[in-house]
Amino acid sequence: MRGRGGGRGSGVGIGRRIGLLMGALLALQVVSIVSPAYACGCGAMVHGTGTELAVRQETSAVRWDGRGEQIVMSLTVDGNAPKAAWIMPVPHRATVTLGDRALFSDLERATAPVHKDRDYFWPRAGDWPFTHDHHPVGEGAAAPSAAAPPVGVVDRRRLGPFDVARLTATDPEALRSWLETNGFQLPPALSTELRPYVAQKWEYVAIRLAPASGDGPLSGTLDPLKLTFASERPVYPMRLSRLAKTPQSLKLYVVSTHRMEPESPIGGAPPEVLYAGKVPLESTELARFAGVSYTSEGNTPYLTALSQSFRQPSAITGDHELKRASNDTAFERVIWTDRLMRVAGIPAWLLTVTTGLAAVATTALLLVRRGLRRRRVVVPPPPVVVPPPLG
User: Fold this and answer.
1) Is residue 377 assigned to a domain?
2) Model pLDDT for residues 293-305, shown as the tens digit of each residue
3) Hey, which end of the chain has fewer CB within 10 Å, N or C?
4) Where are the membrane-spanning stretches (predicted)?
5) Which structural domain, as residue segments, surrounds residue 86?
6) Is pLDDT of 313 > 70?
7) pLDDT at 257
């Protein structure tokens, strides 16, 4: 009887442990799928509760001609969210169209590292007489008036997989209401980050993303979007990235009349220059993006490629404001391939060493021969004896 009673007690204990374990696993799963909105470098990505969406790669091209600005953005996303919304603040009313994927292919080719060869004299690992393996070494319209309603939809239309709405707002909460009406919940922190834009009377582009097939999660590289708006100074919105929970990286191409650079790191690592030089006009889509107004005056526009990482997004202090660099010095990355110097297929060091050894040997032989000549003993001839005369 005791044995049976003990068995029931043990069964209850095991059942409780299993129940607690399942509850903990369930809680962990719920926490993992209910994630906050992802803030990309250009704006804020908002998706439905209980889904995940991450921007794995963000690449943007900015063109500024002194009067207006264009931003073409390419996002590669991954997750289980079937739809999402993306908020992009702009200083003036923007025109939104689809971009061309070929632009980024042209930019990649134009700014890719160049490969160059350089010779070295003395043998290294992998060269005879050594046997170790050797690998080559490589060295970015009017603002709403005070009488405008708290939120206004300028227009709304479909562009490929995007449902694009251009909004005006004098209250961050108005954006929250718009998103809630459309099935999304705006995080409270994002509303706070929008306040500086509201104070400056910026406008907003709100974009709903959906797969081309109409079902299934968002995944892969989305079609690029192009925003065109008036701008007295080149700017790339970054403030909303403060809300990102993971480190971020930004690749920014800037086309202007001169080499450009950010005014400050805005809380990230110092921007790295990947390329600086004239736009290669043989790149069709890149030349088109650069604009006819540049070439009509006979001045080829300048292309600057920048890369920056943000290990702590919460440290971001504002938007990227771009300025003319102190000079237009060209720059390109170089990947060097080191080659052993050869003459007629023979390593130059071996010829040099062999020739040197031969010269030393010849000189030594001549010195030895000269020394031998000096040491040779000359034997004088015997004296001639003249006999005395007779008588």
Assistant:
1) no
2) 444 445 789 999 9
3) C
4) 348-368
5) 36-136+143-340
6) yes
7) 92
What's the CA gap between 207 and 216, in Å, rounded?
Answer: 18
Q: How many separate domains does the chain show?
A: 1
Q: Provide the phi-psi class of 9: left if phi over 0, else alpha when psi is between -120 and 50, else beta.
A: alpha
Would you call the peptide bond into 144 cis, given omega within 30 degrees of 0 as the criterion?
no
Tokens of 22: 């399942």
pLDDT value at 105 more than 90 = yes
pLDDT digits (tens, 9 = 90+) for 143-201: 334 445 678 788 888 888 788 888 888 887 777 777 677 666 666 777 788 889 988 98
The CB-side HSE value for 52 (13 A sphere, CA atoms) comes to 11
Full 3-state SS string of the chain: CHHHHHHHHHHHHHHHHHHHHHHHHHHHHHHHHCCCCECCCCCEEEECCCCCEEEEEEEEEEEECCCEEEEEEEEEEEECCCCEEEEEEECCCEEEEECCHHHHHHHHHHHCCEEEEEEECCCCCCCCCCCCCCCCCCCCCCCCCCCCCCEEEEEEEEECCEEEEEEEECCHHHHHHHHHHCCCCCCHHHHHHHHHHHHCCCEEEEEEECCCCCCCCCCEECCCEEEEEECCCCEECCHHHHHCCCCEEEEEEEEECCCEEECCCCCCCCCEEEEEEECCCCCHHHHHHHCHHHHHCCCCCEEEEEEEEECCHHHCCCCEEEEECCCCCCEECEEEEEEECEECCEEHHHHHHHHHHHHHHHHHHHHHHHHHHHHCCCCCCCCCCCCCCCC
Whether residue 268 lies inside any domain: the answer is yes
The pLDDT of residue 34 is 30
**Helices 188-199 + 172-181 axis angle, to 10:** 130
Read off the pTM: 0.71
Residue 356 within any structural domain of the chain: no
Q: What is the mean pLDDT of the chain?
A: 77
Dihedral over alpha carbons 116, 121, 124, 129 (to 10 degrees) = 130
Q: Is residue 299 part of a domain?
A: yes
The predicted structure's pLDDT at residue 211: 62
